[in-house]
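User: Before I run my own analysis I want an independent prediction to cross-check against. Here's the chain; please return only the C-alpha cells and, at the end, one sentence I can use as a sanity check.
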Amino acid sequence: MASTHDTDALRNISMLADLPPWQLEVIAEAVEPVEVRKGTLVVERGSDDGYTYFLQQGEVSLDAADGQNKVVELNSEVARSPVSNLRPRLFGVRALSQLRGIRVPDIVLSAAGCSGRAHNPDEITVESEEEDQRREAESKLSFQLYQDLKSDKAILPSLPDLAMRIRRAIDDEVSDAKAIARLVEADPAMATKLLKAANSALYGGLDGVDTCSAAVVRLGMQTTKQLVLTFALKEIFYNEDPMVQKRMHVLWKHSAQIAAICFVLAREIKGMQPEEALLIGLVHDVGAIAILNYIQKYPELAQDEAALEETIDRMRGELGSMILRKWNFPPAVVAGARDAENWLRRHDRDADFTDLLVVAQVHERLRKHQLDGLPPMDRISAIQRVLGDGATPERSLEILHEAKSQVDEMRSVLRG
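Assistant: C-alpha cells:
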C-alpha cells in the first residue's frame, strides 16, 4: 500500500491532481524512482519505452533532431508536467547534473484516464456510482496485468517455441533453406500453412512447390520468418471458457481481416515490407486478448458486454504496446498496437506501418457501416500518406475493392 506522502506528492502532478484516493494509491504502487548521474541519457529521442517521466530536481538538456537543444532547470512547477511525452519522443533528455524524479507506466496512467494533458479546471465530469466502480475495476485490472507482465507471469499463451527457434535460426544467418525447412517440418500444421502460402497467387510462380525447402526458397528467409511467426500467433487467440473463446474468435477474424488489408496496402508502397505489415495487423489488438484472459477475475467488467467493450477500447492500446515491448518486437510493431485507432495522428514523414493500420481500420469500418467514433475523413491524414494526396474515401474503397481477391487470398492463407 502506498504511503500518504506518496499520494500527496502525486497530487502535485497536474494530470493526477483530481484523481480519487484509491486511484492514486494504485498509481503510487507502480511508480519507479529515477536517479541518474550527470551525462546520462534519460530518454532517447524517437523511443517509446512505455513510461511517462516526471523529473523533479536537477538540470536537463532537451535535444531535438536538428541538433538544437534547450536547457531546462527542474523545479516544482516543471515537475507538474511530463517531459518529452509525445510518442515516438521528439526530444532526447540528457542529464546536465545529478537528476531525480519518477516514472510511471503508461498502462497505469491510461487506465486512470490520464492522457498526458494537464487538467482543465473548467472541465467538470460527473460519473455515476456504477461508472466509478467500473473505472476502479479497470485500474485494478491494468495494475494486475502490469505487475504480472513485469514479473514474467504468463498473461497470454506463450508463442510456440518452434516459431521462436525458426526466427532465431533465420536471424543468425547461418542456416540455409533446407535447415529451416527441417525445423518447419517438425510442425505439420505449420508446414502445411507455409506450403499453402508459397503456392498462393500472392507468392506463386508458374509451377507449384511441394516441399518445405522449396517453399522457403520461393518465399525467401525474411518472408518465411514473418509468416511462421504470423501463423504461430493464432494460438494466442484462445481461452478455455466457451463464452470468452467466442469473443476471441470474433477478435481473430477482425485481426486477420485488418492484417490482410495491411498486407495488400503495403504491397503498393515502395519500401514497405508486406509481411511486416501483415504481422503488425495481426497483433494490433493483443492488448484485448490479455484483457479477455483476465476478465473473469473482474465481474464488474465482465457482466456488461457494452461496458466490457469500453474497457477494451480504453486499455488495449497501452497494454498491447507493453506486451509487445516485453516480447522484444520492433518499435514499429509496438507503435502500431498503441496508435491503431489514433485517427488524428499526424507526422510529416512518409507513410509508416501505423498509418497502414489506421487506414485498414477505417476501411473496415466503412465496409461495415460502423462510423461511430470516426472523425471526418479529411481529418484522417493517414489516408493521404498511404493513398496519396487528394485521396478520398470513395477512392480508397475503390482501391480495396480492386484488391479484394488479394485480401481474400491472404485471409485464406492465415486460416491455414
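Sanity check: Residues 239 and 246 are 9 Å apart (CA to CA).
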